[in-house]
Amino acid sequence: MKIFAIDTSCDETSVAILNGRRVIGNVISSQIDLHKKWGGVVPDIARNAHKETLPKAVKQAFKRAGVTEKDIDCVAVTYGPGLAIALEVGLQYAKSFAISYGKKFVAVNHIEGHLLSGLLLNRKGSGIIKESENLHSLFPALGMVISGSHTDLVKLGCIDKYELLGETLDDAVGEAFDKVARMLNLGYPGGPIITSFAEKFRKKNKRKYFDVRSFKRFATFKLPVTMERSGDLNFSYSGLKTACLYKIKKLRESAVTDKEWVYEFCSEFIDAVSYSLLVKIESAIKANPDIKTFFLGGGVISNKYILGDILRLVRSHGLKAIYPEKTFRTDNAAMIGLAVGLNIENKSACVLENKEEISDIERVPVLSF
Ligand code: KG4
Ligand code: ZN
Question: In which residue ranges of the chain is pLDDT below 70?
Answer without folding.
Answer: 208-210
